[in-house]
Amino acid sequence: MFDRFLRHIHERHASVATFDAAQIESFFNEIESRTTPGTSTRLRYAKMLNRLCRHLVDIGLRASNPASEVSAFARWPEDEPLPLYLDQAADERLQAWTTPSGLDDSRILRNRAIVALFLGTGISAAELRQARLRDIFVDDARPNVYVPKRGARDQRRVTLPQFALPALQRWKDGQPCSDAALLFPAPGRGGAMNDVLLGAVVKDALEGIGFVAPDMSPRILRNTFARRQLLGGRSNEDTSRMLGLVSQRTVTRLRATISKLGSA
């Protein structure tokens, strides 16, 4: 997340010590055009920038907090929304949905493979966009996906579950031989996919199994993966590591949904 904001201000010849409220507003306008409506992306960026600016003021690097001048902050809630996830029945339906059919065209097969990778490994949308053919090991003794280091996230390998293998194998078999090629290139023009297309793929799959939620973006599949690990007995630390997270905050919030379920 922070890398994206840094790129934005660097392109405008600013730094963390000099960016202003107008550049924050322009950043929000940019992400608004590239993300799926109804997701918590803007809220998460808002909280991150507000914390960053307060910290920079505290250490004397800035004289004021430009984030406090952004009007959009005033209308966003103080509390983060509860994490959304698929319950076990919906999770199993979506796992079954990823299984290829002999009638699938290349678009449907691609969509099944995308959903299988999200749901089976918990990688982020940014990580999936940059995944290469060489990063997926479907026919290994222990199938896995390799996720390179990106920003604060260390490199990692995540084991691919059995349900994800058929779609990923079929999709990978139909791609160019170059291991350096993107696993899921953007249709037509090539290059990496954008968030809007990935969001549409996930939303269509969720609607296909009859699941409706306020947020139907890849994040709900990442949360579902993480919660599945917790239900399977993994610790917060292990699950956070599988997600590539330094903080355990996300996983702690997901574990709270399990505790509430047990006490109901």
Strand content: under 5%
- Number-wise, the strands total 3
CATH class label of the largest domain: Mainly Alpha
- Specify the biggest β-sheet: 3 strands, antiparallel
Kindly give the count of domains.
2
Helix amount, in percent? 40-55%
CATH architecture of the largest domain: Orthogonal Bundle
What do we call the CATH topology of the largest domain? hpI Integrase, Chain A
Keywords: DNA integration, DNA recombination, DNA-binding, Plasmid
GO biological process, one term: DNA integration
Organism: Paraburkholderia largidicola
Family: Belongs to the 'phage' integrase family.
Provide the fold topology.
Blueprint: H1 2-11, H2 21-34, H3 41-58, H4 71-74, H5 88-97, H6 106-121, H7 125-130, E1 136-137, E2 144-147, E3 156-159, H8 165-173, H9 195-208, H10 218-231, H11 236-243, H12 249-263
Antiparallel strand pairs: 1-2, 2-3
What does this structure look like?
With 264 residues, the chain is mainly α. It has 2 domains: 73 residues, no CATH class; 176 residues, Orthogonal Bundle (hpI Integrase, Chain A), CATH 1.10.443. It contains 12 helices and 3 strands, in the order αααααααβββααααα. A hairpin with a 6-residue loop joins strand 1 and strand 2. It starts with a helix and ends with a helix.
